[in-house]
Amino acid sequence: MAERTEHALQRLLDELGRLPGIGPKSAQRIAYYLLEADAKEAERLADAILDVKREVHFCPICFNYATGDTCDICADSTRTRSEVCVVAEPRDVEAIERTGSYHGLYHVLGGVISPMDKIGPAQLHVRELMARLADGEIQEVILATSPNVEGETTASYLSRQIKPLGITVSRLASGLPVGGDLEYADEVTLGHAIEERRVL
Questions:
Q1: What are phi and psi of 47, to 5 degrees?
Q2: Of the chain's two ends, which shows fewer C-beta atoms within 10 Å, N or C?
């Protein structure tokens, strides 16, 4: 019996340890918290995880998270349809939305160009972005990748692809720290960067 308990606990520790940002000590704290919590609390957590896996998917238009046919932003008819803000991950959409400074559409690449990780344009949603730009409705593309090496490389590549289409290409303005991640920027800094974006 003790061996089975030890195996179950180790399995939980192993699974928690796979989560980003969770080291062995954090995994241990969470595991012991769950052991001491009542069964209903553990069930609520398990159900929430299962529900999000069942109900949340990628929007077929912009690749943001969605629960309906499309995400709430693509479905919102009040958004400015002539602007598309290109970000690396869905969490970057949330960061920009919190600023209240941007009212256009988004396109989530699903990462950034990173030769070290064998990620090139073919592994990202670049082809889908170019298809969206082909209909002529979009007049400006805002490149909002993080100001680090991979983000700058991705922005530079996209700029070269988009400019020949006659679409205005802009980049977030200074104010964001070089080498930082977009999701950790505060709302005021990020809002200012959107408002003061520069044309490339």
A1: -65, -40
A2: N
CB 82 within 8 A of CB 138: yes
Q: What is the pLDDT of residues 62-98, one digit of tens each?
A: 999 999 999 999 999 999 999 999 999 999 999 999 9
Three-class secondary structure of residue 116 per DSSP: helix
Helices (H), 18-162: 24-36, 39-55, 72-75, 90-99, 126-133, 149-162
Other Cβ atoms less than 10 A from the Cβ of 3: the count is: 7
List, for residues 12-70, the tens digit of each pLDDT value.
Answer: 999 999 999 999 999 999 999 998 999 999 899 999 999 999 999 999 999 999 999 99
The helix-helix angle for 126-133 and 149-162 (nearest 10°) equals 40
Q: Which residue has the tokens 């959107």?
A: 194
pTM: 0.77
Scanning the structure block, which residue is given the tokens 């996209």? Answer: 158
| Burial environment of residue 66 by CB neighbours within 10 A (0 to 12, 13 to 18, 19 or more) | buried
Residue 22: its H or E element: none
